[in-house]
Design a protein that fits this description.
Length: 282
Amino acid sequence: MATIIDGKKTSSEIKDELKEQVEQLKEKNIEVCLCVIQVGSDPASAIYVNNKKKACEYIGIKSLSYELPEDTTQEHLLELIDKLNKQDDVHGILVQLPIPKHIDEDRIIQAISPNKDVDGFHPQSVGRLSIGQKGFVSCTPAGIVQLLKRYNISMEGKECVIVGRSNIVGKPMAMLMLRENATVTICHSRTKNLAEVTKRADILIVAIGKAKFIKNEHVKEGAVVIDVGMHRNENNKLCGDVDYDDVIDKVSAITPVPGGVGPMTIAMLMYNCVESMVPATK
Ligand code: GUN
């Protein structure tokens, strides 16, 4: 019987641990503050932003929010980020993506101070991760490492195959698994004989954005499968990048969708916000 890796439960545990840390900081008169900026009114973004605010409230992190209109200029957004960078009582800054097309996303990510980059998207955060220095780590891959560790699934010496090479998941995931002494392979849309590669995986991480793409034939007997995808099928039911029913009898552990990786992303954002306080407490 496969272990179902419960991201909802694990994220609740992490949030409760953080709540305690935040209470301890409050006793020292230190208040953690995250500022969330949304540009435009994308309905999915509005839900994500609201969930982030709710998580802050639960843990005791102060949240500031800016809801800017769709026609906000790049200059205005850069000015706001500059102001928040200089504000000592703001510890984390997050610009919800996607942003409208007339604004250069890279320019915005780079404008956020690396000391407040709780998303871990700034080139300095990415660079630090890749050379093994301390810094903010992108929340979804950091959440996956937490899930594996808390389920006592060691990465050391394991064949870890990542399907997907995005800047937010695939690439930082590879760096984190290397840090855990795994043997890492990244596959992508041009990989030849994908199933041959994914079948080598002791731990298979799938982040390609294609519903139920990974089937029984892609998975080794006893593999651990981590599904980062999130899709709605024709019956409005959520599913992942992995065909869960097709692989469930073959795997030793798997993350479900929903309730697997998804909830961990916000928990790790909260973790990064608390981490952002470290300089203040030293
Ligand atoms: N849009 C979808 N996921 C994310 C995320 O993790 N961070 C930000 N800033 N925007 C997102």
